[in-house]
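call fold(seq) -> tokens
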Amino acid sequence: MAAGPMAKDVCALAACMRVFFSDHLWRLDGSIPRMPFNQSIYEGSGRLKIGYYLADGFFPSTPPCERAVVVACDALREAGHELVPFSPPEVRLTT
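ret:
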């Protein structure tokens, strides 16, 4: 299970986000926040602020997944980005 889109590379994720942030989807569902895809941020080389978490409070994470997040965070910090830990909101399941 993934909390968002997964892809083979960043270009495929960017293409997905262009669709998610398109006016077409907003016209189909007005509850979707209207936020256009910002191409300049995608193409930019500036410092990013990136949120991460090791546990979602719902399912325990496995040691390999935690290690993958830590390794990715270390690489991103080394590349000059700011990493911010956060707690995802509580997810309530409905039946």
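The two ends are 18 Å apart (CA to CA).
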